[in-house]
Amino acid sequence: MDGATERHGGAQRAYARDGGAPRPAPRHPRTLLAALMLAAFAFNTAENLPVGLLEPVSADLRVPVPAVGLLVTGYALTVAVASLPLTHAVRAVPRRHVLTGVLAALVGSGLAASLAASYGQLLAARVATALAQALFWAVLGPVAVGLFPSGVRGRVMGALSVAGSLALVAGVPAGTWLGRVADWRLSVAVPAVLGLVPLVLVAALLPTAAPGAERAAYGTRPDARRFRTVLAAGALSATGGFAGFTYVVPFLGDVSGFAPDAVALLLVAFGAACLAGTGVAGALLDASPTPCWPSRWRRRAPGCWACGRRAGVRPRPWCSCW
Predict the structure, then answer these.
(1) Helix locations, 152-259, DSSP H
(2) 5 pLDDT higher than 70
């Protein structure tokens, strides 16, 4: 038996000795949740901000616009590739230490990006932020839901999703405006400054506990088969959703005939609907988690089918589940 397995087994035995009772809730859980929401907002804003600053960064660093676009593509690829190995590497480290580490990395790499004198330095800073974000989202859920009783965990995850979505609805547009009227470096530094607040609060308020002894360390009804099913369904849903969102602007303009100003308003309405839906979904997950998953696909499939028909194609029935 290796050391990690022994530590995990020790945590399970300690959990069993306590009669399966989780550790007491930390103090100020709402403050900690607000701090984690701000951290999610800062990370997602930092991730997508270059999309609105392509031209200013290109002109300042004297690189082609497609090279600046790679700052977003490379960031996303780093997060996708690094999430699993990084999470595995820190599986025995207390989550308080992990979160303070990734938040410190967000602050440091964000400030380094704002001071970058070359494209290479900016790219290196972006990779550092991406590695921190890969680990942040991996541990965020268990830490956040462990702050509250199991009956409200759906709403807790909904709040985190709202914070992440607000980065696209408000954070990136505001950062784009600031970068164009002032300086892109100032805009890039803002998420790093925002990260200081959750860094201090997490370090001060989140208890230090072994991962296996945390309140959300074990599911109420663990089932490996159902977990794999939910994981696969979530991956398909996210892939289809983001693939469709990639082409929503040309679809609205070229296929549906909306003017550019109308497309912008429709995107704002779309973002507002996403925020509202996320809030409602959190409450529904707490009330009846099992029926909530298939209901979202039953609502998405007719919309995807109608869009495909409007574009003059014949979508296959199995495509609608995406």
Answers:
(1) 153-166, 172-181, 184-205, 224-246, 248-250
(2) no
Q: What is the mean pLDDT of the chain?
A: 78
3-state secondary structure string across 246-314? HCHHHHHHHHCCCCHHHHHHHHHHHHHHHHHHHHHHHHHHHHCHHHHHHHHHHHHHHHHHHHHHHCCCC
Dihedral over alpha carbons 133, 134, 139, 144 (to 10 degrees):
40
CA dist 11 → 24, 88, 91, 192 (Å): 16, 17, 12, 35
Rounded Cα distance, 105 and 98, in Å: 11
Show the domains of the chain with their CATH numbers.
24-213 (1.20.1250.20), 224-321 (no CATH)
pTM (2 d.p.)? 0.74
Nearest alpha-carbon partner for 100 in 49, 125, 135: 135
Residue 319's alpha-carbon distances to 171, 186, 236, in angstroms, are 33, 43, 10
The Cα 208–Cα 97 span in angstroms is 8
CA nearest neighbour of 222 among 12, 2, 7, 5: 12
At 3, the pLDDT band (50, 70, 90 cuts) reads very low
Enumerate residues 6+ apart whose C-beta is below 8 A from 79: 47, 130, 133, 134, 137
Question: Taking the CA of residue 42 as centre, how many other CA atoms within 13 Å lie in the half-sphere pointing to its CB?
Answer: 29
Distance of CA 77 to the CA centre of its chain: 14
